[in-house]
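Dear support,

I submitted the protein below through the web form. The confirmation email said the job was done, but the results page showed an empty box. After a refresh the structure appeared. I'm attaching both so you can tell me whether what I see now is the final result or a partial one.
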Amino acid sequence: MAANPKRYMRNYYNNAWGAWYRVYTTADIPPDTKYTAGAHLALSGTTFRLSDFCKTVTDWNSATTNGWYMASGATNAPATGWIYGTVIAHNANYLRQIVYHFAVDSSVSATNCDRYERVRHNGAWGAWVNTSVRKAVPNNAAFTDTWKACTKDSEGYVAKGSGQANKVWKTDANGTPAWRDDANSTNYLPLSGGNLTGSVEFTDSGTSVKGIGGICGGNDYWRIVGGATASNAGYCEIATADDANEPIYVRQYTGKFVTLKRTLTLLDGSGNTNLPGSLTLSGQVARNGISKSWRDGRDGALVRTNSMGSSQYIPLASIKTNNGSWEIGAYTNNTLFFTYITDTDYNAGTNKVTAQVSITPNGMINGNLNGNAKNGITYSSAEPSNLAAGATWVDA
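What the results page shows now:
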């Protein structure tokens, strides 16, 4: 018989012979030969066992099969230094990597033992996440089905919210937590807006500003704020912003903002302010003088009218006297008039001039005086024969 005979066997069933099969022995398999069955699972003889050490990789993206891996300085690592860990794979495109930092001492509470995880989903790698938990488990820790509430002195869990509608979990003055009524739950203005029943007051702005503002017109801005340039030097600002041509309107409507009635325009695109009605002052209208040429006098005038129609009287100023008023205005034919109207005629609606002096464009001054007055002399006639006694006719 040969030193290492080979043995074969076959079956006889239902009057028929089956095929021959060789019967192997341990002598046919070299001892301690390791056959890979996944990364670092091995066969020693006929016994499965783990490989002695992790498999070294240079790129963590290449660790995509089940097993244990390690690397130092590999690409796509969660941190620098030595890293080792395991891979749990469904296939090459769906897997999880769980790795650890090598410890540099015997402590497992320091950051040198951090644990990281990431997944590969549908072929795409997710980010590494630090999933380390370094808090020591208490000596008396045990699994229990008893719920532990938190107190002012110890940690625990919040009680269930069933039956606690519109309440909040908060502490009292002593620090004891519980479900409590929230005094602020109905006393706030939602981000979506609403109606205030009280006042709003901002805290001190210092030398910055505080207030409200928003966007208008797509890319323009508005705000109403309070600020200060220094201590005891505060101010309120109503402003628009972007191209410096966004006007500020002060308006009146009928109804609840139905029909626009009047508009006061503050600072239009040219910096002008337009009033829809009269302006009543208790002080002066004053400004620094502006020197202009004769031609440009209208451009430097403190008060200016911009138009005049045919046969119109345009008053510029009215000065109240004891029993009437003097008006200064322009009339047709480019003539300037100084006109005195009594209160009696004004109140009665009588369009009557008591005294009037005019200046024509060629410099002629025309006036009328009461010739019956004790010292009055009439100068309104064009002929010397019509002048009162004492008057002198000068033919210019």
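Response: this is the final, complete result; the empty box was a page-load delay. Residues 343-348 form the longest helix (6 residues).
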